[in-house]
Amino acid sequence: MTALTDSIRKAIHSHLTAKPMPEKRVRTRHIIGTASKKRRERLRWPFHSDALGVNPEQCEQAEAAARANGVPVEFDRETGAAIITGPDQYQKLAKASGMKTGRDGYEIPGVATGRQEAKNREARRRLIQELAAYPADYDP
């Protein structure tokens, strides 16, 4: 088993926080006062997600587990990558897998975010300052 390096973590984070591209995008180009519409095809779906993938030997088990969570998904038998067909399936599979994508807003239970830790430190600091403000002979 290989350890996650910083470069792998960075690649996974950038993949999970990337916004899905729209399937089709109409772009208006202005050429000497006239507007012409040029259709640009953006083929984003389906795509193979290595981050949501599994070991190739575990594809059938992962498909069964995903179906049990209400997410019909297929895995590439050679690489183990999840074949994602749309943004809804992407978010549901990420949630079923316990991965936070940064867009869907759910949190992993038991894991404190950096902001929550900062709030807790600030609350402790305020409490210490309050207690220090009491006179030395104060007896509640």
Write up this protein.
The protein has 140 residues and is an alpha+beta fold. The chain has four helices and five strands; from the N terminus they run αβββαββαα. It has a domain at 43-101. The strands form two sheets. Strands 3-5-4 form a three-stranded antiparallel β-sheet. The protein has a two-stranded antiparallel sheet with strand order 1-2. A hairpin with a 6-residue loop joins β4 and β5 (82-84). The chain is elongated and about 75 Å long. The protein starts with 5 loop residues before the first helix and ends in a 7-residue tail after the last helix. 10% of the residues are buried. The model is unreliable at 106-111 (pLDDT under 50).
Compose a concise summary of this entry.
This protein has 140 residues and is α+β, with helices and mostly antiparallel strands. The protein has helices spanning 6-17, 59-68, 87-97, 114-133, and strands spanning 24-31, 34-41, 47-49, 74-75, 82-84.
Morphology: elongated
- Count of DSSP helices? 4
Main sheet attributes: strand count, strand direction, barrel closure? 3 strands, antiparallel
Radius of gyration over alpha carbons? 24 Å
Strand order of the largest sheet: 3-5-4
Low-confidence stretches: 106-111
Sequence of secondary-structure elements? HEEEHEEHH
How much beta, percentage-wise? 15-25%
Average pLDDT reading: 75
Number of strands: 5
* Assembly of the depicted chains: single chain
Distance between termini? 57 Å
What is the structural class? alpha+beta
Helix content: 25-40%
Keyword list:
alpha+beta; two-stranded antiparallel ribbon; 140 residues; single chain; 4 helices; three-stranded antiparallel β-sheet
